[in-house]
From TrEMBL:
Organism this protein belongs to: Apiosordaria backusii
Keywords, alphabetical: Oxidoreductase
Pfam families documented for this protein: 2-Hacid_dh (PF00389), 2-Hacid_dh_C (PF02826)
SUPFAM superfamilies linked to this entry: Formate/glycerate dehydrogenase catalytic domain-like (SSF52283), NAD(P)-binding Rossmann-fold domains (SSF51735)
Chain spans, region Disordered: 1-60
UniProt name for this protein: D-mandelate dehydrogenase
Family to which the UniProt record says this protein belongs: Belongs to the D-isomer specific 2-hydroxyacid dehydrogenase family.
Keyword Oxidoreductase: yes
Length: 434
């Protein structure tokens, strides 16, 4: 799972996946299998101390890796290789709080470490955003920062790159889980699943003393949902962003099972062979994609300037009744404008896994998601919105992959002197060296 908000959360907060850097050209990586090992036992870290004692030598024979967050859980074989290659130091939870973390960096408490390793999203973010205040204190020895999750808007990857530090995400590990979840959300917008589910259950909870209301809700949904439900087949699926997740969604929804037409918009057009394989049509502008789509899926990273790309203006390009899905970042959508578009019928149905102010969800969208109820004689407007809790990437297999891929990135860069497997900021490093 990746983070449920656009900034790191306190320890113990459950947190899910976002999207890979879809604006980058398609990259082919030869990476280790992300298949889970048989065991899921938590193994102790080596060495047992969390920080270098004052008397410890500052130039150990092995490179130092700063491990922020919980011990690894799923990949003991890879961790055995990892801990044999590096001196792994894991700061304590109090040391990871921002003020103490800054103090420790100034004191060079952990020596001249070569890499930062964050294998989970639930812990390791206690110091908050990685901005200039933290990055400027990193020793010159740091070469790579490898983290769980696909999203990286909590770290200034541009500044890291300018400092010569490669930032590696783990979006590849979350891609299948997020794509699978997206399939469910797309189907929901075509078949109005919130309405169908709520009509069968909510009246019993909200009006237990009025069984006739429950029966009426059930029968109305049974009779009326058909008129607004459609098969996805033959409709155009517009993907905003065509990275690992976008391409997997295209493969799943464009196959013989669902038979959708695939269209996409991205900052960088993908190679012709990718388009041929996925039968995907490229649109040079967001406007062109939105006008052509029957269902739009947002699967691109957060914008560099933090501004939304789904606004009242861009929603105006949609055909009436177009469906909308967001499994990317809540910050990319003006939720009030989306609620207006739903009210006006510009958007016929929506599904959102991510939200602007997580864990708070937009109240207007909540009413649209749970609006079915019984009030004496009146059945409320059927729910047209599916809302989930940033769950798209949240599977055990995703966590296994986050952990494995983060270690493999550091091994590749620091131990083997090779290129990183999943870098996201190489363009900033190139600018620094030219």
């Amino acid at each position: 799972m990746a983070e449920p908000t656009n900034t790191p959360m306190p320890p113990g907060t459950p947190v899910p996946a976002s999207t890979p850097r879809s604006s980058s050209p398609l990259q082919q990586y030869s990476i280790p299998s992300l298949t889970p090992n048989a065991t899921t036992t938590t193994i102790p870290l080596w060495p047992s101390t969390t920080s270098l004692p004052a008397s410890a030598p500052r130039k150990p024979q092995r490179p130092i890796v700063l491990h922020i967050g919980d011990p690894i859980k799923y990949n003991p074989d890879t961790y055995a290789e990892f801990s044999a290659a590096f001196e792994v130091i894991r700061p304590s939870t109090p040391e990871r709080e921002r003020s103490e973390f800054i103090r420790a960096l100034k004191e060079k408490r952990w020596g001249d470490f070569s890499a930062i390793f964050r294998p989970f999203w639930g812990t390791g973010g206690e110091m908050g955003r990685w901005d200039a205040e933290l990055i400027d204190l990193l020793p010159p020895s740091v070469k790579v920062f490898a983290s769980a999750g696909a999203g990286f808007d909590w770290a200034d990857t541009k500044l890291l790159g300018e400092r010569g530090i490669i930032y590696c995400n783990s979006g590849l590990a979350a891609a299948e889980a997020v794509a699978d979840f997206s399939v469910a959300m797309i189907i929901s917008t075509f078949r109005h699943l919130p309405w169908c589910m709520n009509a069968a259950t909510l009246p019993y909870l909200s009006s237990s003393s009025c069984p006739s209301g429950a029966r009426k809700a059930f029968l109305e949904c049974h009779a009326r949902a058909t008129a607004v439900s459609h098969n996805p087949r033959g409709h155009t699926l517009g993907l905003i962003g065509f990275g690992n997740i976008g391409q997997q969604i295209a493969a799943k929804m464009g196959n013989t099972a669902f038979g959708m037409k695939i269209a996409y918009y991205d900052v960088v057009r993908k190679p012709a062979e990718v388009e041929r394989e996925l039968k995907a049509t490229f649109h040079e502008s967001l406007e062109g994609l939105l006008k052509a789509s029957d269902c739009v899926v947002l699967c691109t990273p957060a914008s560099a300037d933090g501004r939304p790309i789904i606004t009242a203006d861009t929603l105006g390009y949609l055909k009436p009744g177009t469906r909308f899905v967001n499994i990317a970042r809540g910050s990319l959508v003006d939720e009030e404008a989306l609620a207006d578009a739903l009210d006006q019928g510009v958007v016929g149905a929506a599904a959102l896994d991510v939200h602007m102010e997580e864990p708070r969800v937009n109240e207007r969208l909540v009413k649209m998601a749970t609006g079915l109820g019984f009030d004496g004689q009146k059945v409320y407007h059927p729910g047209r919105v599916m809302l989930t809790c940033h769950n798209a990437g949240g599977t055990v297999e995703t966590h296994v992959g986050f952990e494995e891929l983060s270690m493999r990135n550091i091994l590749a860069v620091v131990k083997e002197g090779k290129g990183a497997l999943t870098p996201v900021n190489l363009h900033w490093l190139k600018e620094r060296t030219t």
